[in-house]
Amino acid sequence: MEFFKKIFTRKIIAVVVLIDLAIATGIFAMGIPSVDAGSLLDISDKLSGSVPGATANHTVTFTTNSNIAAGKTIKITFDPETNAFDGVQNVTNADIQFTGATLVASCSPGTDNVSLSTSTAVGDESVIFTVCTGNTVASGTLTIVIGNNKLVNPASTQSYVIRIGGTMPDSGDTRVAILPAVTATAAVGTNFSFAVLGVATDTMINGVTTTGATASTSVSFGTLSPAAPEILGQELQVTTNAGNGFAVTVHEDQDLTSSGGASISVFANGNATSTPSPWTSPLGIGGQPATYGHIGVTSNDASGTLNFGTSTPLFAGSFNPTSTLTVFSWTGPADGATQNIGVASVAYKIETSPLQAAGSDYSNDLIYVATPNF
After folding, report:
1. pLDDT tens for residues 14-33?
2. How many CB atoms lie within 10 A of CB 114?
3. Which of 109, 144, 178 is the last residue of a domain?
4. Would you say residue 12 has pLDDT above 90?
C-alpha cells in the first residue's frame, strides 16, 4: 500500500511540473510584440563612386510587398549607426529621379504623387518621401536616384548601412562599401611606320589624273613635250599610335638638273609657292631660265595643314632644297588605311616651254620625312 502511495504522489508532482512549464511558456509567448511591417525585397544602393570623402550619386532600388497609402512615408536613412554621410540637407527635387512614383514640388490631385523632405538629425540623415493625400504608391519595384553628387561619402573605409523604412508597411536594410580608389598603371610602346607606294596610270588624285605609273622609289616623267603637262603620283601610308599625330613633308635635294647644267625650277616660274594656288604654265621668257619649265605638287589630304583644293586642284612649289612642304598630316593615331587619317596621295605636275634646254638625264631626289608627335 505504501508503495502505491509513493507512485501516486510522484505522478501528481510530475503533472504539476508540466502544467507550470506550459504556463511559463504561454507567458513568454504573450510577451513577444507583434510586428505588422513586412520585409522589402531586392534592396540595393548603387554608388557612382566609392572613394572616401568623395561625392557620389546613389541609385536606391527595392521592391515593396504592399501598397503605400496616402500620408505614409518612404524614408532612406544614410548610415543610422555612425551618421557618417554628409550633404543630405542639400538634396532637392531637382536631384531626384523617382521611378514608380511621381515626385512633385507640392501635393496635388494625382495617382502616385509624393513630396520630398530631408532630415539631418543625428543618426537620422534621411531623405523622406511622403505620399500625397488621395494618392497611393503601388507595390512593386521602386528606384530612387539621388544625383548631382549631393551626398558625400564617409571618410573611413568600411561598409555602411542604408536603411529603407519610414511609415510604409515594409522596411529593410542594405549596405554600401566605401574603399579607396585602386590605381592602375600600364605602359604602351610606341609604334610608327611610313610607306611610299607607286600609283598606276589614270589614277585620280585631288582632281587631276596621272599620265603615267610610278614605283615606290622612282617617279619617271619620260620625255617631256612643250606645253604638254605630265602628272605622276605616289601614295603615302602612315600607321602610328602617336597621340598627337604626325606630319609628312617632302623636299627636293636639288632642282631637276641635267648633266649639262640646265634645270627645271619649282612652281611657279622659280618662285617657290608655299600657299597652294591654281596651276599656271611656265612663262617661257627668254633670258630667264626659271621660267622655262616648272614642277609643283598637290595632295588629296583634305584635313592637312595646307588647303590643296578639291574641285579645283591647287599646287605648291615650296619643296626645293631650302624649304620643305607638308603634304600629309593628322592630329591623332593613324591606321595606314583611312583617307586623310592613315593614307593620302600626292601628285607631281611638270610642264615645260619650248625654251627648256634639251637633256636626257634630268634628275633629283624627292625626300619624304615622316615625323610622329607622341
Report:
1. 333 332 322 222 322 223 33
2. 26
3. 178
4. no
Cell of 203: 589614277
Tell me the C-alpha distance between 277 and 296, whole Å.
10
Grid coordinates in use for 333? 593615331
Amino acid at site 311: S
Interatomic CA distance for residues 70 and 233, integer angstroms: 80
Helical (H) or strand (E) element with 19: helix 2-30
Q: How many residues does the chain have?
A: 374
Those residues with Cβ within 8 angstroms of residue 369's Cβ, 6 or more apart along the chain or in another chain = 248, 249, 250, 251, 324
State the total domains in the chain: 2
* Domain extent for 45: 38-178
> Which residue type is seen at 154?
P
- The pTM assigned to this predicted structure is 0.64
Asked if the structure places residue 184 within a domain, the reply is: no
Beta bridge mates, 237: 195, 343
Contact 333, 243 (CB under 8 A): yes
Asked whether residue 285 is domain-assigned, the answer is yes
Between CA 181 and CA 186, with CA 182 as vertex, the angle to 5 degrees is 140
DSSP-derived 3-state class of residue 333: coil
Last residue of a domain, one of 149, 178, 207: 178
Query: DSSP assignment of 45-68, as one string?
Result: EEES---TT-EEEEEEEEEESS-B
Asked if 303 and 203 sit in the same domain, the reply is yes
Provide the grid cell at 48. 557612382
Q: Find the CATH number of the domain harbouring 95.
A: 2.60.40
Rounded to the nearest integer, the mean pLDDT of the chain is: 89
What are the grid coordinates assigned to 185, written together? 598603371
